[in-house]
Amino acid sequence: MHLKFSPYLDTDAMLAWRHAIHRQPELGFEEFQTSALVERRLREWGYEVTTGLAGTGLVGSLKFGPGSRRLGLRAEMDALPIQEDTGLPWASEVPGKMHGCGHDGHTTMLLGAAQALAKLHREGKHAMDGMLHLIFQPAEELGGAGGAQRMMKEGLFSRFPCDAVFAMHNMPGMEQGQILFREGACMASSDRATLVFEGCGGHGAMPHLATDPTVVAASTVMALQSIVARNVDPLASAVITVGRLQAGQTYNVIPETAELELSIRALKPEVRDLLEERIRAVAQGQADSFGAQCHITYERGYPVLVNSPAETRLAMGVARSLFGDARVVADADPLCASEDFAYMLEERPGCYLFIGNGDNGHTHGSASGPCNVHNPSFDFNDRNLETGATFWTALAHSFLSTHARI
Length: 406
Hints:
This protein is of the alpha/beta class. It is built from eleven helices and 16 strands. The protein has an eight-stranded mixed beta sheet with strand order 1-2-4-3-5-16-6-15, with helices on both faces.
């Protein structure tokens, strides 16, 4: 099947699109150039294009026949506020911004599939029936204020109904071109808490006349470690990371306040609730024990990303028929990273899958060796452009086939 769709792909064009997008990275809700590039190509190939969802988001729709089946494929377009350090010919030309997560590659893979599917549509020999919606989303990297939720609030699924939705992300450290799946909980929820401890400031030489909030904060950092160790089921996953501890301005003054900022992850909704309950109780208890006040701001971010069984099995079957069993991982480990595609999967069945990016994406330039996403030396692996576009083309063909069954 891989060879069946390869003639419909323009690999040279995909490479040019990916490098053009990479050179001009745009942060969340600022993806004007990227969105315009996608829009031009989709219109050129005959898609009905709707722009302006969540500002810079767009949907390209193509009808293959009178059938009622409706498929959504999603790619994200935004970059990160990181200074690139790859030394590649196509490196970012925008200071302080880079595609450090591979969204340039994700956009290009879906765009390549869009071109191939349009060619199949024109030939009329595709045996496909139904509606295809290609969702190009802004601002995945913005936490709870991301583009998926905003697109949905602006009527994504009411205006572009989908029976199922799918998305794909590259995975550094996994063999290039390997396709990874996980049914059920696949990625963690992501919440944020800010704990402000208020004491009574004073002279560093006379601590007995003050209520030191730094001691409260330090004690809380240690006490928080007991939540995952002693309150969460050892067979469940949870993370509480203190990413920021801030207090005072100089060495000999006890400050009035001290702040902690936490990143909180879970792979089950009930564990997510437990973490909030215990964090609030531990922080308040620590403050009370030292005679200080505690002010808690708790923000719920992305929910747990849950892949539905039937759609995951369908996508896995497509990958196996394309690439063989050896390149498909059927039960990949879950990740404690998070993704706003989780919101879409709360509304529609579907699957979020991964494609191996190798040790590092690029084969040219000064950077080398393994690195992760959100890293100044990261680059999307261009060898995945054909692999990913072929998969999307085959998945759409399978889902919208006149003989499709889920």
